[in-house]
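seq as requested:
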Amino acid sequence: MSGKIGILGGTGPEGSGLAARWAAAGEHIVIGSREPQRAAETAKLLRARLGANAKLDGTDNASVVAQCEVIVLTVPFSGQAPLLKQLKPHWKPGQILIDTTVPLAAAVGGAPSRMLNVWQGSAAQQARELVPASVALAAAFHNVSAELLAKDGPVDCDILVCSDDEEAKRVATELAEKIPGARALNGGKLENARIVESLTALLIGLNVRYQAHTAGIRFTGLPLK
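struct tokens:
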């Protein structure tokens, strides 16, 4: 993929896990955070793990949007709307935003295996309202284990990609398939993100009941590539 990939909230478990996977695949990753020093430190730690050739930088979230054409949002639901409102003046036409947000009740002190009701229908649809129409948006990476991403082995998970924009869907699919073991599936229109997001709460419940940490989803009966 040409150009840099920015990860907003990239110091968290999912953001840093995706950063490591894509950097290992040869992509140039820019990790974003409210605290640029924290982002720089995360990038430094990942470079130490992956090797000197890994292309990883760290900066503040606004600078990520300023320099990247593809941006992945990996913040908790409680931070999604405030961050996107803050960044609204920084977006440029033609950029692609990939939203991974899940509206878990844990964001307001509730159980992590329960969902919050989002007026727009899903966190992804809320994001669609909060970024300019000139920015294409896809929803993806909701159901992949952050713990598996942090390791070096394959990720046993299907990744559903939902979008009303075919280019955004193509880019998110390409990024998903850069993760060894993962398979990207066309999840249909953005409105389907509400279903995909809810699967995360189900997976968290399964992890708790079975004392696991890496439950994922696989769909059977589909043609393999």
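Residues 105 and 115 are 5 Å apart (CA to CA).
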